[in-house]
């Protein structure tokens, strides 16, 4: 009877121990698990460095072990003025720009947990995603984002590139702070921004005025460009005229130089011919000054007298004709009459 009574209690105890030993602990497809050993004769107590992979089932006793899971998918913290964010009511960032104007900014922070640092998160920060977000991610991201965008001037919020630069700067600083704790910030996305109504109206009026100024600048620029184009056209025409005149001048200069060269050559030829004639005359004068010259003169005189009628008149003081008192023409006429007779 005693053995049967012991067996009656022993079998259920064994079943319970087996069930406890094989108690399932699961992770979903985006979760990692962290195990804490509270007591074991075979393993060291405390948070285990092993990270249990997603989408699996693990068996170990629940009483002497603790089990925690962290979701590693991308998480979004929406800090907006509407109720769609992580918290109901107004949750946007309210701060002052560097030039002292109030502004409200909607921001979405996208982050995820580094799976390999899940044991450190459990040991140092939080036991689950919600606690991690509330204790660390949310306050740090709000402060850093507010500080970075607060360094902008009011008009800088209208420039998308400047907002993007500050978002990237905030992301870099957040990763420097949060990465050691197992949090990776993927993006800081600024959304809508709002100013007080009075200032908003002033800004809108300024924007309209700036648009008019830009339009006037564009029109002025277009007019200046038109005049510059006309100046360029006129300059081109003047340059063409100058080039034509320069061409005519060069052509005339070439012709003048050619004529000058031609006349120079003619002058040199005339000079050479004159020098040759002069030398010939000199030679002839030298020849005429000699005995041969006198002979040549006599020959030329003889040639000139060929066929000429020569009348010899007696001259002299004794019985001859005195040419001083004689009318030679009358004398020749008398000789002519006599010849006819």
Low-confidence stretches are none
**Termini distance?**
225 Å
Approximate strand percentage: 15-25%
Q: Please give the count of helices.
A: 7
Helix content: 40-55%
CATH architecture of the domain at 75-195: 2-Layer Sandwich
Assembly context of the chains:
single chain
Protein architecture, described:
The protein is of the alpha+beta class. The protein is built from 7 helices and 9 strands. Helix content is 55%, strand content 17%. A hairpin with an 8-residue loop joins strand 2 and strand 3.
What descriptive keywords fit this protein?
341 residues, alpha+beta, four-stranded antiparallel β-sheet, three-stranded antiparallel β-sheet, 9 strands
Question: Outline of this structure?
Answer:
With 341 residues, the chain is an alpha+beta fold. It has helices at 2-21, 118-124, 129-149, 160-178, 197-288, 291-305, 328-340, and strands at 24-27, 31-37, 46-47, 56-59, 65-71, 75-79, 93-96, 102-113, 183-194. Strands 6, 7, 8 and 9 form a four-stranded antiparallel beta sheet that branches. Strands 3-2-5 form a three-stranded antiparallel beta sheet, covered by helices on one side. Strands 1-4 form a two-stranded antiparallel ribbon.
